[in-house]
Amino acid sequence: MPHALLFTGIDGVGKRTAAVRLAMAVNCVGYRVLKQPGGLSGKSNERPCGQCGPCSRIEEGTHPDIAVVLPDGGVIKIAQIRHLCHILSMKPFEGDMRIAILVDAHLMNPSAGNALLKMLEEPPEQTLLILTAGQSSDLLPTIVSRCQHIRFNPIARTSLSEALIQYHGFGMDEASTVAALAGGSFSRALAMKHSAWMSRRDWLIAELGRLDSSPLHVVLALSEKLSKNRETLSDVFEIMFCWFRDLLIVTRDPAKVMNLDRLDLVRQVSGRYTTNELIHSVNAIKTARAHVEAKTNVRLSMDHLLLLIRRQL
Ligand SMILES: [Zn+2]
Fold first, then answer.
1. What secondary structure letter does DSSP report for 72?
2. Has this prediction a pTM greater than 0.85?
3. What counts of helices (H) and strands (E) characterise the chain?
4. Is residue 93 a contact partner of residue 64, using CB atoms and an 8 Å limit?
5. By 3-state DSSP, what share of the chain in percent is helix, strand and coil, each rounded to 5?
6. Please, what are the domains in the chain?
7. Cystine design at 214: which of 107, 218, 274, 300 (Cβ 3.0–4.6 Å)?
8. From the CA of 30, how far away is ligand 1's center (Å)?
């Protein structure tokens, strides 16, 4: 086992879950009971068992040798890393191996990053440090070079769809639609079921369809409406991006369309645009999203975006 692991991948692919499962596997003292036909039962050496004391406590978050560091208000601060150093300077309470999980390690501020670097240079004994992040380039290269890096790919559509049906009560059609739209993220797929995401998408697609023929004041009113609700802005950009991306790729690779339940509409609308117009729109959406994430004036960015997408026919 290395001293430090770095799990990277988009949100909702199971980085943190894998870290917790690994912590369980390392500390597990039980075995899995296998039910066999005829009432016999056997033992499996598969770890973690999920049933022994350490497994249960780790799953509940009450195991004394597992430390989880979460961002506090969008940042991991130096005090949190110092506190972790203090905990790791002591011997493990019960297990052989202590695990420290730093969730969204890219949110460490520079001083926290430097404090962590010091820890990685002289790793505490009997300790495994697991960092999760979107991508390794979001972290200091000196931190990345001291970790064994494991990349988590987005979850394949079919696997995602099967899991949604089996464990979360999705119907077949709903599961395949959501799996296509979730972009390989399990948490995103679940969030879509429980939010107004799908109806928001249908509404926004219809609004985008009317954009070319709308007078300027209607376009600006739409911009105002979209800009006002900050909580749904990231969904709005995601919906727009997926939609124009689908319009662009449907003629080349229809199997990759994300709005799978609207495939006929995607085909129909795609024919009204030239490839250049679609590329232009996709790029405009990416730029506007980056501007908004960089905390520029949301309303101005949205006005600009809608006017760029709208064609003067
Ligand atoms: Zn166990």
1. B
2. no
3. 14, 7
4. yes
5. 60, 10, 30
6. 4-151 (3.40.50.300), 195-309 (1.20.272)
7. 218
8. 4
